[in-house]
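Re: export button greyed out
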Amino acid sequence: MMQRLPSAIAVLLLALIFATIAIGHAEQTVLRPLAESYVRLVPHELGAPNVITGILLTYRAFDTLGEVAVLFMVAAGVGLVLKEPGKAGARSASDSEAAQPASEIVRTAAQILVPLIAIFAAYIIMNGHISAGGGFQGGAVIASAVLLMLLADPSHKLNSVFLSVTESLAGVLFVLVGIAGLIFAGGFLDNRVLPLGQFGAFFSAGAIPLLSVLLGVKVGCELSVILDRFRA
Amino acid sequence: MLEMLVVLLCGSIIASAALAVRLDSVLAAAVSGGLATLFAAVCYVLLGAPDVAMTEASIGSGLSTLILLYAIRRTTEAKE
Amino acid sequence: MSEVAGSILVLIGAFFHFSAGLGMLRMPDAFTRMQAGTKASTLGNALILIGIAFYHPGWSLKLLILIYFVFMTNPVSSHALARAARAIRIPMAGPPPQALASAPAAARDGA
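Workaround output, generated via the alternate export path:
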């Protein structure tokens, strides 16, 4: 009982802090000045109906680049720590029971579902600037499609070299589009390098769909490589 | 009405997190952690943030839970 | 009028979901729990989505695709779970107490 006392006190103090925040919380009815200026500026200047994607890929695009760099470091770290299969010591005995394929029902369903999920991921990526979605969400859904493929067929070998090269190329192209924004338009990763187009159309809002696609490809490849490293 | 629903969901998050701490089997605890993430994603939808909800649902209760399950499989294999 | 029909369908779907949860609590065994949870909740999902289609007729095609997706994934995942439970040899529950006490039945349900 006495050795649980410090953790119980810590939980109680945390609950007190959250209770203070929750009781004094009053829902805002008007936006703060910064939020209001974003809500006004993004459809007007950038031509994108989705304010969040507009902020993420233009006004705060440098932070997105930093996030992309962090993801790359995570993938590199996972690749460093987990060795390739076949080099670890006593794993051959359990490999025979770990590599048995899934049953036929799961394999057939995976054959139908993986293209469906991939189309859905492409839809989320391409419609990032119109409705909810964007690069990160689409990349995560692509990675879950790859995960379904890996679960249905455990002996399938992913082409890690191709995925790593694609991911690095997508990152390089992201920075190149940003530098093009520096040369041809207002600043780094400005989206006015491509024409703004009609508000709400599919090809509109300048370079935001292009950046969404590059981001989605990069995140999808990264998460797939991490999953492949963890799998076996 | 909406606030009551959000409070109920937050209670479910706390309950599934407490369940993850108290369960004996590590496998069930990992799944319970994914359940807490799922309730958080529903909260985000109710509070008007569908982008965050999509990211949280696919990464938190999809990929993160599965990576944890892969890690559990690897470590219990190494013990045998 | 169509809204009343939609509401009734949503209520029936919610009742099926409730019975799925009740079944998962009350069933004696992992396999019967999986069976109760999957069948009733899949049908509940389908009924709720059809009920919503009565409210918004413009969404009918999208809701139909959603129902197709739920019918594809829910039973397949439950099948994979049951197969995994069989592979790690989770014990099945025996017969109810007032079963027939004949010898072949008693010898069959030990595994």
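The interface with chain A takes residues 50-51, 54-55, 58-59, 62-63, 66-67, 70-71, 73-74, 77-78, 80 of chain B (CB under 8 Å). The button fix ships in the next patch.
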